[in-house]
């Protein structure tokens, strides 16, 4: 069985019509002979479009599942997202690939830990006060557009959902998909204090800790538009995002999807 992963398609930005992207997806996934496709968030700026896209792919024979990224949360709050009754939206759910292999989905969120719990020459130059960090996020990242109301409660609720699934499936080969960054090893700290501050909203150290303590085999993530494929403490991490055409890549969208589609055989 071949499993494919893509993140940060950003179709609202990258294509004029959803149909264009469908053609490109069908070509890429059929060439790679994918049996199941997982989208790891930031597919569109509206969750309805993301779900519509997933349904269209499924109808065309690509068995597709998704979690939401921060861009889906521009149009929905977490309470409403939790009440969505959609089989292909897998926040806090598990897809069993066979008797031994599962994919656990969690949208993921941030808990400021990449700033408040990481001590380096750059974090020492900035405030670790969560209210001050939040204001920087509102002024300079998309935090003001995010509809999630209570950050701490949402992070904790998702952690609880994730731990429940990890506990149920701990004896299986687990692939975890989450939009947010699972380790500070994948965020960039530098002398730009605003840049370093907004790392607070990139993800959480907890995801790496949970992956290691439950023997998770692979973590597939997005959110950062940089590419990573590496192993840390026995866990394989993969981030192969599409990103924004025009200012993050200059190949065609078709070429980008083909080159960033991550495929594993189980
Ligand atoms: Fe993104
Ligand atoms: Fe994102």
Describe this structure in words.
35% of the residues lie in helices and 18% in strands. With 266 residues, it is of the alpha/beta class. It has a single domain, classed as Metallo-dependent phosphatases (Purple Acid Phosphatase, chain A, domain 2). The strands form two sheets. The chain has a six-stranded mixed sheet with strand order 4-5-6-7-9-8, with helices on one face. Helix 2 packs parallel to helix 10. It is globular. The model has no long low-confidence stretch (mean pLDDT 96). It binds fe (ii) ion (2 copies). One fe (ii) ion binds next to loops.
Q: Which small-molecule species are bound to the chains here?
A: fe (ii) ion
The arrangement of helices and strands along the chain is EHHEHEHEEHHHEHHEEEHE
- What is the number of independent domains? 1
What is the top-level CATH class? Answer: Alpha Beta
Helix content: 25-40%
Sheet having the most strands: 6 strands, mixed
CATH superfamily: Metallo-dependent phosphatases
Quaternary assembly: single chain
Radius of gyration: 18 Å
Q: Find the count of extended strands (DSSP E, 2+ residues).
A: 10
Distance, first to last CA: 6 Å
């Amino acid at each position: 069985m071949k499993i494919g992963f893509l993140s940060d398609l950003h179709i609202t930005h990258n294509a004029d019509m959803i149909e264009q992207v469908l053609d490109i997806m069908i070509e890429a996934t059929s060439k790679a002979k994918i049996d199941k496709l997982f989208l790891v968030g930031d597919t569109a700026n509206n969750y309805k479009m993301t779900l519509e896209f997933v349904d269209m792919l499924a109808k065309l024979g690509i068995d597709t599942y998704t979690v939401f990224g921060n861009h889906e949360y521009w149009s929905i709050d977490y309470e409403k997202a939790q009440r969505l009754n959609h089989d292909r939206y897998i926040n806090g759910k598990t897809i069993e690939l066979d008797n031994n292999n599962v994919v656990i989905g969690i949208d993921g969120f941030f808990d400021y830990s990449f700033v408040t719990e990481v001590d380096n020459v750059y974090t020492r130059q900035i405030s670790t006060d969560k209210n001050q960090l939040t204001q920087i996020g509102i002024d300079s990242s998309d935090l003001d557009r995010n509809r999630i109301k209570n950050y701490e409660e949402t992070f904790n609720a998702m952690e609880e959902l994730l731990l429940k699934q990890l506990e149920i499936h701990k004896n299986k080969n687990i692939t975890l998909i989450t939009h947010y960054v699972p380790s500070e090893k994948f965020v960039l700290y530098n002398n730009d204090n605003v840049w370093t501050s907004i790392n607070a909203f990139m993800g959480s150290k907890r995801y790496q800790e949970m992956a290691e303590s439950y023997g998770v085999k692979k973590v597939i993530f997005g959110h950062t538009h940089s590419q990573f494929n590496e192993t840390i403490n026995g866990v394989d991490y993969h981030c192969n995002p599409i990103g924004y055409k025009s200012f993050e890549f200059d190949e065609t969208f078709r070429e980008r999807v083909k080159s960033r589609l991550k495929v594993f055989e189980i």
